[in-house]
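Reading group handout, session on sequence-to-structure problems. Before we discuss, look at one worked example. The prompt was deliberately terse, the way you'd type it at a terminal:

> structure Beta-N-acetylglucosaminidase

The input record follows.
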Amino acid sequence: MRKANRRRRVPARRKRGALAAGAAVAVTGIATAVAVAVWPSGGGDSTGASVPGHKAAVTDPPSPTRTYSLSRTPRTIPAVREHTPARGPGWRPVTGARVVVSDADLADEGRLLAGELNLTYAGQTGARDGDVALGLDEGSGGAESYTLTVRNGRVTITGPSDAGVFYGTRTLKQEVHGGGTAPEGVVRDRPAKAQRGLMLDIARKHFTADWIEDRVRELGDLKFNQLGLHFSDDQGFRIQSDTHPEIVSKQHLSKAEVRRIIDLAKSRHITVVPEIDSPGHLGAVIAAHPDLQLRNVSGVATRGAVDISKPAAADLIDELLNEYAGLFPGAFWHLGGDEYQALTVANPEASYPQLATAAQAAYGSGATVADLATGWLNDRAAVVRGHDRTPRAWNDGFFRGGEVQADADLQVAYWTGKEIGARQPVEYLSAGRELINYNDEFLYYVLGQPQTFVYPTGQRIYEQWTPLVVRGTTAVPTQYDAQILGGVFAVWADLSGAQTQDQVAAGIRMPLRATVQKLWNPERPGLSWVEFKTLADRLG
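And the output record:
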């Protein structure tokens, strides 16, 4: 299994020594054969146009008197934040060139890049002409930042962590895609938002492990760093369980398949975020445990909801949370908490007297069913917090006022403003809460387009959405920018048969690219939508 995502900082003396062996190229008047190719800067700095002969193994070095045009900023998705141009031939992968690393922690990144560019992985050794050198450098841009330098016929990528270096390799991969050239100069790059994700509803629709792995590779190349798996809902429970095998749907992922997905995600610096939604959306669990189903005062069953006045309901969910904490090693956990049907009626206390009685017994005579639901959410948060996970929940699982407040460290996954008692995002932000943007008007791809949903387009995201646009189309004040941790594009399988999984992949392709552009680079895009789409088509 690949190492865990570490953020070890390497002493400066060691880093400089590791890269110094190949840091400079002597220019002489003697025509010496080296493994680096030379191209005019005007034809391949970032356009990706194929240049005849680019695969030649040995080419004469440039003449000391040769003049090159100033390089242009590379065109990548997402766009790089900063590029300092320079004069020179740029870099392309050629036969005989290598990938070298300054630290053993970068071996995975080095081997991956070498395989992708058909280079030799040479491990911890000095760089030479034509090589790509990966190194750790404390820097000042954050753990996911990197610097990519093309100079003197070689490439150097450094960052304060292996994640940052990995993102630098993704930029280089795009630069040379299809015969393109990495332009001379220096790229300094970093993400605007720390959380950049895709969420998949694998509960309502079974997606194969191979298909999910393809999405992981796609996400990694685009510099996403989270994959959410919503694997429990009314229609299915889709991951193997050892503690409660009776709840698992016939079509599901085995734990071995999930571990393979997680390992691949780690190699791309992607955290897999699991979600077992409760106390609603538990129909698949209730089908095997009908005694836990919530019923109203007339004895009518409430779809998908467990009776949270019953300790057995909490015990079952906690057993599942504890089991899957051993499967998913990431730092985050999604608890759901949305659309508990007991709270969608006019008078929850009259409709569900057993919940009202339990609330008053636990929290005092003034407590309500909303207080009992908040207590349930806090109790589940305590379980995952015990496994060193940071919990998040849907915004309609948070309630105004009452005797019980949601724990302060619960991150708000804000998706809608249409629920009963809906609150604007600013109400959460002004209270100091951290928020993740799942805006359902831009970032929800709901199969079959039920209710008022329409398939989101990349163009609309690219031209109208930013992380500050949390609800509807209106941005929150910029003073809250730091509390918005990032955004997640979500695929929901409400009408699971409406699209095949391949159609889903095609449908979310451009929305994903537009989303990550806005999460990585906060500036207004320099390309028009047509130019951006053309670039995406060229890069594949």
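Points for discussion. First: Confidence is low (pLDDT under 50) at residues 1-59. Second: The chain has 15 helices and 20 strands.
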